[in-house]
Amino acid sequence: MTHSMEMASYRKPESIKGSTRIAGLLLASVMALALAGCNTTATDMTGIDKAQGSAENISSLNDVIRNNPKDPEAYNVRGSAFGRAGRSNDAIKDFNTALQLNPNFYQAYANRALVYRNLGNTAQAAADYSRAIQINPQYDTAYIGRGNLYRQAGKLDQALNDFQQAIQLNTTDARAYHNRGLIYQARNQHKQAIEDFSTAISLQPDAAEPYNGRGISYVALGDDDNAFDDFNTAIKLDGDIAEGWANQALIYEHRGEKARAAKSYAKAVQLDPNYKPAKDGLARTRGA
């Protein structure tokens, strides 16, 4: 997260009657966020503002390339702009050209990997991230990108290794901590998860997702008050994420405030009519 951070999950029973069911819903809530993408970082496509995908900007980049047809950086930048504009085939073509001009252009490999990932070609994306790492073993962005692929494929040990490597390289990319936090959370290591989510928040305080993630771990530890604060902050930062509203609703439900819960569930359903935890929660609380 502009940025939309990778998200995920978790649980733990509490003392309130019915809380095991609620905790399970919280787990499903955040697991649905696991496929969201968080893209940050300097010269890479992951850090280019969405405005750079505008027709006006692409036109300017066309002029740059006409004046510098042998400049790999120009193709890398335009490829990134094409990627932001959703023009995946054009983006891949430009990254290919950049790599033909400079076979060691590791940023172009990482940018092409992101396009392949968005196209669902995870094998090629992983290969490109690995090639970027082979060229530059200090390149934190590639470890984070490949780690995200591993995490989404359920290869948590490999994902953890990549996030650990990025963190050991002193990355300032919040995704490394956020996603390591998700793995700790998946393993019910909630105190470690909270520490990582807090670091992610300090690095990227305008991102809603780490607040949702940290809130889930607070719930798992029985700390509904801090969880509620985090879910409310997540909504303030980005009120268009259905999971945030559903998570808030679950706390209301924990507290027996069914009318408020139903209102928040309804907002989540409005944002994402197919989001099952919100639909189920609304069915439980509507008219209660």
UniProtKB/TrEMBL annotation:
The keyword Transcription regulation appears for this protein: no
Name under which the protein is recorded: Tetratricopeptide (TPR) repeat protein
Taxonomy of the source species: Bacteria, Pseudomonadati, Pseudomonadota, Alphaproteobacteria, Hyphomicrobiales
Residue windows of the TPR repeats: 72-105, 106-139, 140-173, 174-207, 208-241, 242-275
Signal peptide boundaries: 1-36
Database matches in Gene3D superfamilies: Tetratricopeptide repeat domain
Coiled-coil region(s): none
Pfam families: TPR_11, TPR_16, TPR_2, TPR_8
Keyword annotations: Repeat, Signal, TPR repeat
